[in-house]
Amino acid sequence: MSDRYPRDSDNRDVGNYGYDDRTRAYGRQEPYAEPGGQRYAPQKPASSGLKFDVGPFIGGVVATAITTFIAGWVATAIVQAVYNRTGTSVFWMYGLEDPWIAGVYGALAAILAGAFMLLLFQAVPSPNTFFSWIAGLVVVAVIVLPFLAAGAITAAFGSAIVNGLMGFVIVALLSTTAAKTYHGRS
């Protein structure tokens, strides 16, 4: 036999026959081919039914609660400082003594919103869309309601600013958390 017909170590024909097939990609193997040339079907990983990463999601909810607490505390302290500076003595939603109360309410709202988002993951086909709409409507309500309930317009402005800031923080951070941890329908 000549060297013109290449053979492997067992003297089997390897099929090149002296020409170079320029249509094949160098260094690539046949897709889904085992080394012996046998084809096989790719195995799909076993699904546990979860479409999101639970650990990072819960961590994101806790981080959102902490961030909302800090945002509510800082915003309340600023609004109270403005009221004290301008000599406006009004009784408003979060009182005049303790700015951390708004932060506690905000943190509780963030945890409830996270639990609601978890429920939406399991119940609806497009949880991010439903969460955005529902949370957006709740934020509008907590901004508008102080104007309907407060005796003084200055008290309503302070409460609306703090509520709006905390609502924005919750919606923005939980939406980002969902986008990073949910791997299902959007």
Architecture overview:
With 186 residues, the chain is mainly α. Helix content is 59%, strand content 0%. It contains four helices and no strands. Helix 1 packs antiparallel against helix 2 and helix 2 (100-123) packs antiparallel against helix 3 (127-149). The longest helix has 33 residues, at 54-86. It is elongated and about 100 Å long.
Secondary structure category: mainly alpha
As a percent range, the share of strand residues is under 5%
How do the helices and strands follow one another from N- to C-terminus?
Answer: HHHH
Shape: elongated
How many strand segments? 0
What is the C-alpha radius of gyration, as a whole number of Å? 31 Å
Helix percent band:
55-70%
User: Helical segment tally?
Assistant: 4
Distance between the termini: 64 Å
The major sheet is characterized as: none
Q: Whole-number average pLDDT?
A: 79
Note poorly predicted spans. none
List keywords for this structure.
186 residues; mainly alpha; 59% helix
Summarize the structure.
The chain is an all-alpha fold and 186 residues long. The chain has four helices and no strands. The mean pLDDT is 79.
